[in-house]
Design brief:
alpha/beta; five-stranded antiparallel beta sheet; binds (3S,4R)-3-hydroxy-2-oxopiperidin-4-yl beta-D-xylopyranoside
């Protein structure tokens, strides 16, 4: 029933919830279908709020952001155009009149003015124990699904509509009104295809007893005559009702212009010759959000696709490659002057079922690996300068750190990495090829030491490996403890130094710092210091030229879905406002820039300053995070023209800033006071550095 007059506003068109892309069977997603991906756990855990509500932040964030007009990000992020202008762009999208009656609405019977539920369908997973069960009926002018038996997950009971014809490169406005018999988190998504079906745009929504309007705009990239809308609702017994469901094409939203909020006046990318900052982005969320796009283009030098290059998505059928999402990201990056990191080529996770279900021997799986590298790296040859060739291949097996037991290793053998790198080098001899892993940042850590041994051995044997990606996923625990979660910066510096000694580059590739809930100022301080310290270590290392954040903001984070007790991992918050870590990192950059003569010279962006070798320590930090200043591999002065990233950034010979001081760093005090956060001095934490 269309109850209110103009209940819809173009408000929440940027995406907000934990997002993952994964393949799942039509109408019947089950844990098995999703278990290959870390995101699967994420989705499953994100469903937990249905049962208890403890983790309701994801849903809360979703509904909050979708209901708020984006005005907040505008000022704080320094967006001169801000969300409102983008919203205006959206309003120009030709959606006049009431959404429920829009001539362009692709949804038939979205207002439930009669008792007919057609063409909506219900699905209840009857393969779980106990089986879920639902009835679907129009009640009080709303489409209501009553779960008489709940499922384990939100996707155990679904209300959906199929056969929606979507156009490629078209923005769509999605709106619906949702209510429930009690507070519960549901999942809304679009999916492409019928069989096979793949989730595409996924959002968590907090439903309450009061009907509320939820709206999104998203960019569809494919021609798809059989797209679906689905509402996954079935984690517990009860009722969810929907009304006024709209899916209609709208004009491309305007991208707001960007002004950096950094007090230095310079965005991260201004310092690209010191260290290139990157961020991971996910389709279609990223491309759908003008505000998000604007910040990424305004601040960063490179992007990594968070999911679109994973094997399940880019080679969903053997030998059939789907470049759609990655092509769109690559085109966006090119248009905005950002570099691109290929990620990942060979990984055991987020793999297609044809791979995991197949029967392979060494030769046939090697052929599959080569064909995948040909298909992906070959498609982008010469375009992406950096590639994660092998991802996360080292693990503890029976108490020993060795090659992880994966389909690749176990079928091909210990030399699968050698073969992958050699083949990748043959396909694109100019690409820089990386091994990428987590928890390998600190020298002395058993896994880190094993990876160093493996990489050293590869180098010695002439395998074409250029670098190692330190993923950089760290955390503070819910109780505020930093044990295990905050790395020792000197150990990271020492690790970078030993890689420099064997002429191997290090990139920070997936940095985030998740906070155990609940969020408080003390945890924010620890996070702020972590980001700034790690950036400083990278700046100081002659062989660390790139630092990528694993996602821009808490609004589109992979963390709450994967680590249910954690959130707030990123440098921008859920409203896309910069957090204290942003200004802290920016000040680290400003000091580094000053040593190369950059800071006072806004016109000098993109150059390394050229005064190579000025070098000397500036405000010695004292704990040795900078002990590698003279490490092998330091380029001589004036090396910026070589094109080698580490050479370009290392003119200063390593500036020693105060990040590792056992006393509180001055920049931290100023950042926190600037942002109104009380400085709580906790010597035990400060002493960690
Ligand atoms: C994560 C994505 O961010 C999620 O959206 C997805 O559900 C799972 O994968 N190490 C990696 C990344 O190399 O590719 C992972 O990305 C995070 C861990």
């Amino acid at each position: 029933m269309f109850a209110t007059s103009r209940a819809f506003k173009y408000a929440g068109f940027f995406s907000v919830a934990a997002v993952g892309l994964w393949a799942a069977p039509a109408r019947a997603q089950n844990a098995g279908g999703m278990s290959g991906a870390p995101g699967a756990g994420g989705i499953s855990s994100a469903g937990a709020p249905n049962l208890g509500g403890a983790g309701s932040s994801a849903g809360g964030a979703s509904s909050g952001a979708s209901g708020q007009s984006g005005g907040a990000p505008n000022g704080a992020a320094g967006m001169s155009g801000g969300a409102p202008s983008a919203a205006a762009g959206m309003n120009g999208g030709g959606t006049s009149g009431s959404p429920g009656t829009s001539a362009t609405n692709l949804v038939t019977n979205g207002t439930f003015d009669t008792t007919s539920t057609s063409p909506w369908w219900g699905y209840a997973n009857d393969t779980i124990d106990p089986p879920a069960a639902q009835t679907l009926a129009v009640s009080d002018g709303r489409l209501c699904s009553t779960m008489t038996a709940g499922g384990e997950h939100p996707w155990d009971v679904i209300v959906g509509i199929s056969g929606l014809a979507l156009l490629p490169n078209q923005y769509y406005h999605v709106a619906f009104s949702v209510s429930a018999d009690a507070d519960r988190t549901i999942k809304f998504k679009t999916g492409f295809g019928d069989v096979p079906y793949t989730d595409y745009f996924l959002e968590s929504v907090a439903a309450t007893t009061t009907p509320q309007v939820v709206e999104y705009t998203y960019l569809n990239l494919r021609s798809d005559p059989m797209a679906q809308l689905q509402f996954q609702i079935g984690g517990s017994v009860g009722t969810v009702c929907l009304d006024n469901i709209v899916l209609e094409p709208v004009a491309t939203p305007a991208t707001p212009s960007y002004t950096t909020p950094a007090t230095s006046g310079h965005p991260f990318k201004y310092y690209k010759d010191v260290v290139k900052m990157g961020t991971a982005v996910d389709t279609p969320m990223f491309l759908s959000s003008p505000l998000h796009n604007s910040i990424v283009a305004g601040e960063f030098s490179m992007i990594t696709p968070a999911n679109s290059m994973k094997m399940n998505l880019i080679e969903p059928t053997q030998g059939v490659f789907d470049y759609t999402d990655t092509d769109a990201l690559a085109a966006w990056a090119k248009a905005n002057g950002l570099e691109f990191r290929g990620h990942p080529l060979v990984w055991h996770t987020q793999t297609p079922s044809w791979l995991t279900d197949g029967t392979w021997d060494r030769d046939s799986l090697t052929a599959v690996m080569y064909a995948h590298i040909d298909g992906v790296l070959g498609h982008y040859v010469g375009q992406f300068p950096y590639w994660d060739v092998v991802n996360e291949a080292i693990d503890q097996v029976n108490g020993t750190w060795t090659f992880r037991s994966t389909i690749w290793h176990d079928t091909i053998g210990d030399d699968f990495m050698d073969l992958a790198f050699a083949h990748a080098h043959m396909v694109d001899p100019n690409a820089k090829l990386f091994y990428n892993d987590y928890n390998i940042e600190q020298k002395g850590n058993a896994k880190a030491d094993k990876v160093f041994e493996v990489v050293s051995d590869m180098k010695t044997r002439g395998i074409p490996i250029d670098g190692v990606g330190f993923q950089g996923h760290y955390y503070v625990q819910p109780d505020g403890s930093t044990s295990g979660g905050v790395p020792n910066m000197k150990a990271i510096a020492d690790n970078m130094a030993r890689y420099a000694a064997i002429n191997v580059e290090v990139h920070i590739t997936e940095c985030d710092f998740r906070i155990g809930k609940p969020l408080d100022d003390s945890k924010t301080q620890i996070q702020t210091k972590f980001y700034a310290d790690l950036l400083q270590v990278c700046i100081d290392a002659p062989n660390c030229s790139h630092f990528t954040l694993w996602g821009l903001s808490d609004a589109d984070s992979w963390v709450p879905g994967t680590f249910p007790d954690y959130d707030y991992a990123h440098v921008w918050d859920k409203q896309l406002m910069p957090k204290p870590a942003y200004e802290a990192m920016s000040q680290v950059f400003a000091k580094a820039g000053a040593t190369t003569g950059m800071a006072g010279a806004p016109g000098a962006a993109g150059t390394s300053g050229g005064s190579g070798g000025s070098g000397g320590a500036v405000g010695s930090g004292g704990t040795g995070a900078v002990s590698n200043a003279g490490a092998p591999g330091v380029a001589g002065s004036g090396a910026s023209s070589s094109g080698h990233p580490s050479a370009a950034k290392k003119d200063s010979g390593g500036c020693s800033l105060a990040s590792s001081s056992t006393d509180t760093a001055p920049w931290l005090v100023s950042v926190l006071s600037l942002l109104g956060i009380a400085m709580v001095r906790r010597r035990s934490q400060r002493a960690r550095a």
